[in-house]
Amino acid sequence: MTPFRKTGQLFHAISRGKPGKLIEKALSVLKNYQPKQEEELAHTSLLASAYALTSLYSLEITDALTSIRFYDKLLKEKYPLKKEDWLKLTGVYQLIYEKTRSIDSLEKAVFSAKLSEDPHVISETLLELYRRVRDEETFHLSLEKTSRFLQENPQDTDLLFVRADLYQEYGRRNKEPKFLQLAQEQYEKIVLIDSKNQKAKAQSIVSSAFFALFHEDADKISESIYKSQLLSEHLPIELYAKGIALLCYAIYSSDLEEIQNAIYYFQRSTSIDRSFSLGWHYLGISFFLLFEAIEDERHLRLSIKFFQKSIQHNPDAETFIQLAIANARLFELDHAIEHLEQSKVWFETAFSIEKSSPFPPAEWIFEYGLLLDALGEAKDDESLLVHAVEQFNRVLILDPSIPDVHHRIGLTISHLACITSDANHFMRAFCHFRLAHRNNPDHEFVLLDWALTLIHYNDCIQETERSDAIMREAEEKLLGSAKQGNNQAYYQIACFYSLRNQKNLALEWMKKARAIGALPPVQELLEDTWLENLRKTDEFHHLLTLWNNHSIDS
Predict the structure, then answer these.
(1) What is each CA distance from 163 to 71, 121, 144, 304, 478, in whole angstroms?
(2) How would you classify residue 98: left for phi > 0, otherwise alpha for psi between -120 and 50, otherwise beta?
(3) Burial of 438 (0-12, 13-18, 19+ CB in 10 A)
(4) CA 473, CA 65: separation in Å to the nearest integer?
(5) More confident residue, 4 or 523
(6) Is residue 101 scored above 90 in pLDDT?
(7) How far apart are CA 154 and CA 119, in angstroms?
(8) Which of 108, 171, 106, 172 is nearest to 353 (CA)?
(9) Do 180 and 207 contact (CB within 8 A), yes or no?
(10) Mean predicted confidence (pLDDT) in 415-419
(11) CA–CA separation, 488 vs 287, rounded Å?
């Protein structure tokens, strides 16, 4: 039997070098050793450390959990842990967090890091905690700790990087240009200390590009592009920076060619490192922007593919949100409800990842509300529509400045009203349409949706005089929407006049809709219940035949 003293000496000797085979040998010796009673806690301490080192070498979660079990025993027995023990325990909890994304493990890593008293480990774990919970308290705690460590060692580039990353994350997430500027200054300070630090140069350009985009500063975006051209192209982060600079310019100028140029660099970044999640994420963003611009389904499917690639390497809540939004767009193309149902799962996965954050970004909640509304309308599900309204109301509390929120609440409540035929829902919808129109009188869809809701409300009205007043108001709003340039209003006006049995006017607006390319497919024209009166006329079928023959000739 190997003496316990020699086992400890062997372990301490190899722990400094961390060669895998020797760690395994030390662990094997420790497991086979039978300690005396007075040696038991010291032996447990060595086992805890050995399993911790083994887990960091093997990346096996079972080794990490075993290490924690031994450390828990030591803590229960009030055995004094050294700083290096807390350091190992921090690494173990970080490993478990990376494998499970458990916020509890990350919080324990932060606790252990503080007891290790290692400035770099404390700063890095607090930064990771902020990236996860994204609340003001954690941001300020992380900033305060890192800044205090930097006071003691202002030339420490690792600590400067943590503070710069913290500023960039906060500024980009909250669209706060001031913090992006602070991030850029920190990265540039790193370059002054270490002129060969390509990562700092790249991140400085990224911060500068986002700053310029949020400020809509064309000159500064151009400056970011120029600086990015001076980067070498050896590291994924450098190629990513080049792509970000071009993408910011593309968004600012609505230049599709520059999006393609940005895609080229993002693709190269992922070809160098297949696990580079930022490259995959922004490939997804770029292809989604292309889809939004030209509505090519191929771009949308590529966007979804790249978001999924990013999640494989970094299951980040923001990427899940983008994936959910992109996937929901597929429903608009093929009307398959499973796309909306899958998007709902991804939205809720993102919210689960960020459940420790006091409030998710209002934009995310707004998009989730849109998804619930679409799914509720597609399935005639009252509970989903009620849930959608709840989400929009949360947006009003968190950030009432988000555009279109009253319009969307009104539209969702109108869908609820059509399912339930509840007059109270119609009244609530009209209130929100009124607020939306007051906030943005030029919003062409507010008047259109308001008018359509009035038409549906009319089905609940028995009194002829009141019904006529409602339909006159609907007509006024439909014509107002068309006057604002809403092409979709033309067809709806035709439907309105068909409902009113004013067939000549209905045909006239059908022709106008046809002239501007705003008619739906023929099958919809043959099935739309609001066109029933018009379909009884010979003129309607003559026009359909004429248009169909013209399409064939073309």
Answers:
(1) 31, 13, 10, 32, 54
(2) alpha
(3) exposed
(4) 68
(5) 523
(6) no
(7) 12
(8) 106
(9) yes
(10) 95
(11) 27
Give the sign of the dihedral formed by CA 492, CA 496, CA 499, CA 504: negative
Is residue 290 a contact partner of residue 299, using CB atoms and an 8 Å limit?
yes
Which amino acid, one-letter code, is at 351? F
Say how far apart CA 420 and CA 428 lie, in whole Å: 13
d(CA 526, CA 139): 59
pLDDT above 80: residue 20: no
Query: Which distant-in-sequence residues (6+ apart) come within 8 Å of 466 by Cβ?
Result: none
Cα angle 8-10-12, degrees, rounded to a multiple of 5: 70
Q: Where is 192: in which H helix or E strand?
A: helix 177-193
Are 91 and 111 contacting, i.e. CB atoms less than 8 angstroms apart? no
| pLDDT for residue 53 | 86
Please report the DSSP string for 282-298 in residue order. HHHHHHHHHHHHH--HH
Take residue 142 and report the two structure tokens written for it.
């992380």
Say if CB 7 and CB 30 are below 8 A apart.
yes
Q: Which helix (H) or strand (E) holds 365?
A: helix 362-379
Identity of residue 77: E
Query: Residue 549 — very low, low, confident or very high, per pLDDT cuts 50/70/90?
Result: low
- CA-to-CA distance for 136 and 467, rounded, in angstroms? 53
Sign of CA dihedral 232, 233, 237, 240: positive
Burial of 514 (0-12, 13-18, 19+ CB in 10 A): middle
- Please list, in sequence order, all residues whose beta carbon lies within 8 angstroms of the beta carbon of residue 321, skipping any fewer than 6 positions away: 346, 347, 350, 364, 367
DSSP type of residue 343: H
* Residue with the larger pLDDT of the pair 181 and 546: 181
User: Would you say 366 and 392 are in contact if contact means Cβ atoms under 8 Å apart?
Assistant: yes
* C-alpha to C-alpha distance for 373 and 388, rounded to whole angstroms: 6
- Is residue 340 within 8 A of residue 370, CB to CB? The reply is no
Segment 39-73, tens digit of pLDDT: 889 888 888 888 898 888 888 899 999 999 999 99
* Contact present, 306 and 290 (Cβ < 8 Å): no
DSSP 37: G
Residue extents of the structural domains in the chain: 1-117
How many other CB atoms sit within 10 Å of the CB of residue 465?
7
Average pLDDT value over all residues in the chain? 91
- Reported as half-sphere exposure (CB side, CA atoms, 13 A), residue 391 has a value of 25
DSSP secondary structure code for residue 518 in this structure: -
The alpha carbon dihedral of 261, 262, 263, 267 has a sign of positive
Helix residue ranges, H only, 440-500:
444-458, 464-483, 488-499
> What is the 8-class DSSP label of residue 455?
H
- Write down the pTM of the prediction: 0.86
Cβ burial of 370 (10 Å; 0-12, 13-18, 19+) is buried
Pair of tokens at residue 174: 């909250």
**Which secondary-structure segment (H or E) carries 430?**
helix 423-439
Q: How far is CA 529 from the centre of its chain?
A: 39
Tokens of 448: 């259109």
